[in-house]
Each structure stands twice: as structure tokens, then as C-alpha cells.
Amino acid sequence: MPKRYLSIWFPHFATDRLVRLHPELRDKPFLLYAPERGRMVVRASSRTLSREGIKPGMVVADVRAILPSVEVFPNDPAAQGKLLKDLAEWCLRYTPVVATDPPDGLILDLSGCAHLWGGELFYLESITSRLSKGGYDVRAAIADTIGSAWAMARYGSSSPIVEPGRQAEALQSLPPVALRLDAVILQRLEKLGFRQIGQLIGIPRTNLRRRFGDVLLSRLGQALGTEPEVLQAVQPAPVFQERLPCLEPICTAGGIEIAIKRLLDMLCERFFREGKGMRTGTLKGYRIDGETVQISIGTNRASRNAAHLFKLFELKISDIEPALGIELFVLEATLVEEVSEAQEALWGMGNSDQASIAELLDNIAGKVGEKAIHRYLPQEHHWPEHSIKAVASLEEQPETAWRTDRPRPLHLLPRPEPIEVMVPLPDYPPLHFRYRGEIIRIARADGPERIEQEWWLQTGPPRDYYQVEDESGARYWLFRLGLYGGGKTQWFLHGYFA
Amino acid sequence: MKELGGKKEMIRQLREQIMTMEGFSSGMDGQRLDFGLGPVDRAFPGGTFPAGAIHEFVSPTEACAAASNGFMAGLLHVLMKKGGSCLWIGKGRKLFPPALKFFGIEPHRVIFIDVRRDKDALWVMEQGLKCKTLAAVVAELKDISFAESRRLQLAVEDSRVTGFVHRCRSGAMSSLTCVSRWRIKPLPSRSEGKLPGVGFPRWEVELEKIRNGRPGIWQLEWRAGVFRHVSVPNQAVSESQSSKKEKHYA
User: Fold this and answer.
1) What average pLDDT does range A76-89 have in this prediction?
2) What is the Cα–Cα distance from A192 to B242, expressed in whole angstroms?
3) Is residue A49 within a helix (H) or strand (E), and if so which, with residue range?
4) What DSSP designation does B39 have?
5) Structural domains of chain B, count
6) InterPro entries annotated for this entry (chain A) (predicted)?
């Protein structure tokens, strides 16, 4: 696909920023300054001041002498850089590939995007009118190359759209400064009488290289499209993304549902073609007031079932605040995984059964949170609390067998609860114990089973476990922490047997 | 004689028809699962444990809750024999997964959902019961209303998944649409011969309510992977049993 680029230039970027922050400055003469070699030098001047002929590079004291009423502010390049980046991100609604062009420009790769707005002219007008409504002085141009779009935006006087392949003609009458050259080369060109780019185009390349170096040739090549130029996008272009611009701003849940359905259908069709599925996805809504709202979903296994994914999004639609309306929906699969057609059978089930359980869990995760879902596998540890590990995946199978050689209670208290016991020495089970004010007499008992601390994980006294049964038949798991004669011992209730 | 046999057959068929009309199946997909409950089976309509329905368990104390979970695990063992998974929903869950292995369940085939509110537990249970591939859904709840149980019943009628509602230390008892209500109480175990120590888990299983069946009380033991009916109860227990029975029918 032939590339098309849009270059946006904000001629009064720094001062427009200040006017937006302080609207009372709108028609006042003011300037931004920065220290340079011990003097205060003008870096940017307001629109009214520029008309007076005050240009960046003048000394502030001179300007004050000409116009005593001028207000001065320090220049803040960091904030300007941030604003430029924010604007670039705002422009993501027009194309996925946007780059900043410091200090005061943006470059958009609009290849394949313009038709959504009904043509390049409407596309350009849409962006420029929105930006100028926002208080920015804007010039923009569309061309085949970044270089020519940049030149036309800043120095062009004719139509802002350069037809495909016509950049050489468009550049003919522009000054050499439109080629993004540095001051030394520009001075030399000026001295030799090169006033227009058209004069340069006809000269043999070897002569140009000898006199001006490779830089001029590569800049010329980039502008004419004979040399490639790479755009440093503010956000890497997402691979799995679908966009849906709306004719009218959408502000109802029903409308959002339709938008999600359409986007999912488009995305899932691509997933099927490429054998992939979505693990996490984000839906962004660009509102007409300039804000973006977004909702995200995650799945337990890669899915390309549009109906299922829609259900997950549906649970979160209520989180979207459409305000005055959403004009563009962007659905992006932020994490994509291969869907293997023949996945190993899980728990003796078919593939479709597995998928239906995974979908059920996705629904649950969407409603009560992913942290609510647990699955456990055995771990080779004797310490009861360490003998299981939680796993996130549904496919993971145990590496070791579940042990049944030692009694383990069906109910394990989250933390052992201290009890008071009456116990004969040395190693007999308790005769009775008191738990929560109730005395429980023990009729039968098994044990002890000594479980030592795993010294590579934690240190401390061992536990001696007893399985005991009271007179009514309730079965408990008790343990004594510590050894007799070796300091303090304490008894705990740790669980209930069935 | 032949005519009589035909009539019996006809009556049996009619009974089955009535039961299916009442939203009550005699087994999963027409095939009967043997839960090995022995004499308890006679209490059920059709003589077999009603799978594909919702059962209610009531546990007033922590020890009873453990006993109920043990009994449930024994039933799950049969339900999960064919493969498939089980959903175990709870709030402040105490179940220790490795212990399920003692009841013949592979603990990694159970998916635990730990929720914070009863409302979420019910929502998850309803979703789970709609998923035909699950073998069973267990939910530990404090309270459930009649209307909520009705929703679960509707979900189950379509999918034929077995559901267990376990009400631990709940307040007022309300009547639910569940097919049965069980109360499981631990009983003193008996070991073989004169061996000291704790024996196999033994419970007093009370079927307090069963639709189209006969309630009753039995003593069961879980031994070597199956339920065993304890036919010779000791003196103390049989007394309490008979007194309870009187109370029940009074």
C-alpha cells in the first residue's frame, strides 16, 4: 500500500499552550524567554507580538524597549514536550501510527485511514478544525513522504494535499529550509544562490555531495521519496486492533453493545485466519469531549469465540461513562496466544468441554474477580500449609501424586487456633481440651505424627500432630508446638476430620 | 399372572412419567449411578440417589460441617468418576484439598471459587449449574431464600448438573425447592477388633426431607472408598435415633 503522511505544525505551540492555561492572555502581547549566554532571549512570542515583528532569538531587554507593556514568562520545554506527546496520543483516534516531531509538530501515518472519514480532504479538515477549536494555531499537509508533508505544512502556500507521486512538483518553489537542514548548510546554499528546492533537484548528485555532504542528499531523497524514512511512533502499532468510527456520538448501552459486537466479529475473523485467540483485550471509547474511557477483559485461555468475548465485555459495559457520546471505538487484543487445535485432553474431557469450563471461569472472573478462582496441585512438603500450591492455569497437571499415607483433615483452619489442654506426659494425646470456652473430652486418639520445620524455608520448633475424637464423635486435628523440656510448648487446633 | 406383570410395568412407567413431569430425574441421562448407599437408596423415589438435582445440607456446628463435606465428597467421588470437574464455591473456605483424595477425588480436578458475599456465591452457583460439562457444583452458604433456590432449580432442570447447597450455621430455616435436606452428624468411630485409636469416619445421616421419598436416619461409614451401612448400631445411638424418629413424625 502506498504510504501517505500528514504533518501537523503548530506555529505558536508554546504560546498557545499558555493561552489555553490562562485564557486572559489571549489577545495580550507576551513572550517566553530562556537564558542564553547571560542574556534573556526570546524563545516564543504570542500571536499579537509576532505580528509586531518580534521573532524568537531577540533579547528580552530590546523587546521591552520597543513595547514596554509586554509580559514575559519563562519557557518550559519539558511541559511543551509532554503536551506534544499528549496531543500525539489524542491523534491516535485518527490513525494507529502517530509520531511527535519536536519541538512543535506531529506526524501521522494515515495510510489506509482516510477513507473512514470520506477522503483525505475531510480527514485533514477534521483534524485541523478540532485542533484549532482547541485553541491551537494549526497548519497541516498530506503527502507521500514525511519530508514533503513537513515542507508543505510549514512553507507551502498552495493546496495542503499533495497528490500521490507529485511531491517533486510541489517542492519546486519552496525554499531550501523546507528540507529540514541545519543552519551551516542553509548558509552555504544561500551564499551560492540556491533560493528554491527546484534548483537543487536538477544538479548531479555527486556535485551536491562534494559541496554539501551526504546530509543534503539524504534530506532531499527523503522529501522526494527516493530514500526511506522511519517514523518513531509514540505507541507501537498494535497488531490486533479494530476501529469503529461512529456517524453519531454513541451514548447508550445498546449502542455500545452493537459497537462491541461488530468489533469482535471483525477481530475474531482475523483470529480464525491466523490461528490465534485473545487472552486480554481492551476496548477504548474516544469521547467527543476529548477524554477516553476503556474497559479490559481477560480470559483463562486464548479465545476467539465472539459470543463468549462479548459476554465478558457485557459485564463491564456499565463501567463506561459515555458522557456526551463516544465517537470512536477501538478494540485491541493486548495479549494474543496461539490456539492449538489439538489441545491435550484435560481431565478426560473433550476439547469443547474444556472450552466451556474455561468460558464459565472467564464469566466468573469477570463478575467476582480473577483472584476468586483457585486450583491446587500437590507440593512435596510435609508442612501442611506448604503441601499444596495454587495454580492459575487450567491445563497444569500434578507432577507428584497426592499423598494419602498420613491422615489429613477435611477442614483445615486458615491459622491454627490456640487451645488449653490437659495432657499426660511424656507423649500422650490430651485427655481434654478447651476451645472457645467449651471443654471437649477426648475418647480416642491417634498419633503423634511429628512434622519438623523445613529449615530451608523457615526455622522454629516442630509440631506433633494428634488425630483425636471426642465423646460425641467429632474428630479434630491437634498439635503441640515445641518439645517438652526444650522451652515453651503450646497446643493448637488445626482442623476437623470428616 | 401375566396381566398382573403388565399392570405393574404400566404403573412403574406412569410413576416415572409423573416424576419427570415434576422436574425430577431418576438418574443422569437415563443411566443410573450407583452411589453405594445401600439401604439409604430405598428412601429415594425410584430407589436411586437423585442426581441432576439440588440437595441441601444443614450443619449447625463446625464438626457437622466437616462431616457433611465428607459425606458430600463421597457422593462427588461417584459423580466425578466419569471425568469432568467440580466447582466448590465458598466464603471463608476451610476445605483442605489434599484430604479429598481420601474420598477418591483428585483434588486438582476441583475448582475452588472463593467469594466474599453469599450473593456472589449464588450467582456463581447458578452459572456453574448451567454448565453441562461440570460433574457437580457445591456451594457453602449461610442463607438462601426460596426465590434464590428456585433459580438454581430452574438452571438444574435444563442442565442436569448435580448441586449441593451446604448451609453452615445458618439462621432461620426456610423451605427451599431442593429435592432433599440432609443433616450429617459425626458419630464415634469403631476400629477393627480391639485396636486403639480413631477408626474410619462414621456419620449419622439424616434425610430430613425428600421429595417423593421416605425420610429416615441411617448410620454410614466411609471405608476403603465406599459407603458402608452400619447395621448394628451401638445402644446409645439407637436410642437417640428412635427418639429422633418419634420427634420427626410427631
Assistant:
1) 90
2) 120
3) helix A47-51
4) G
5) 1
6) DNA/RNA_pol_sf, Rev_trsase/Diguanyl_cyclase, SulA_CellDiv_inhibitor, UmuC
Is residue B36 assigned to a domain?
no
CB B222 to CB A498 under 8 A?
Answer: yes
The answer to whether position A404 is within a domain reads no
Structure confidence at residue A483 (pLDDT): 84
- Residues B129 and B137: their CA atoms lie apart, in Å, by 7
**CATH value at residue A280:** 3.30.1490.100
Mean pLDDT of A154-170: 86
* Domain closes at, from A313, A336, A353: A353
Interface of A with B in 72-111 (CB under 8 A): none
pLDDT per residue as tens digits for the range A279-336: 888 998 888 888 888 888 888 777 888 888 888 888 888 888 888 888 889 898 888 8
Instruction: Give the three-class secondary structure for A394.
Output: coil
Nearest by CB to residue A498, choosing from B69, B113, B196, is B69
User: Which residues, given as ranges, of chain B have pLDDT below 50?
Assistant: 26-30, 233-250
Q: What Cα–Cα distance (Å) separates residue B228 from each residue in A173, B70, B169?
A: 101, 14, 28
Are A76 and A195 members of one domain? yes
Asked if A360's CB is within 8 angstroms of B127's CB, the reply is yes
Contacts of B205 in chain A (CB under 8 A): none
B73, A495: Cβ pair inside 8 Å? Answer: no
Is B62 close to A469, i.e. CB distance below 8 A? no
In this structure, is residue A223 part of a structural domain? yes
What's the number of domains chain A is made of?
A: 3
Do residues B113 and A373 lie in contact, with contact meaning Cβ atoms separated by under 8 Å?
Answer: yes
Residue ranges making up the domain that contains B128 = 51-187+197-249
Residue of A nearest to B200 (CA): A498
Residues A201 and A139 in one domain: yes
Inter-chain touch B188–A387, beta carbons under 8 Å: no
Tell me, what DSSP letter sits at residue B29? Answer: T
- Choosing from A210, A237, A264, the residue where a domain stops is A237
pLDDT value of residue B245? 43
CB interface of A with B, residues 353-392, below 8 Å? 353, 356-357, 360-361, 363-364, 367-368, 372-378, 384, 387-388
CA distance B169 to B63: 11
Q: Please state, for a pLDDT cut of 90, what percent of chain A lies above it.
A: 15
Query: What does the pLDDT read at residue A338?
Result: 79
**Structural domain boundaries enclosing A169:** 1-237
DSSP assignment of B55-73, as one string?
EEEEESSHHHHHHHHHHHH
Pairwise pLDDT comparison (A183 vs B231), residue with the higher score? A183
What's the rounded mean pLDDT across residues A353-362?
A: 80
Distances (CA, A) of A62 to A37, A65, A487: 16, 5, 87
In the predicted structure, residue A347 carries a pLDDT above the cut 50: no
Does A230 share its domain with A260?
A: no
Give the residue from B64, B111, B138, B219 with the most A CB atoms within 10 Å of its CB, the best one to mutate.
Answer: B111
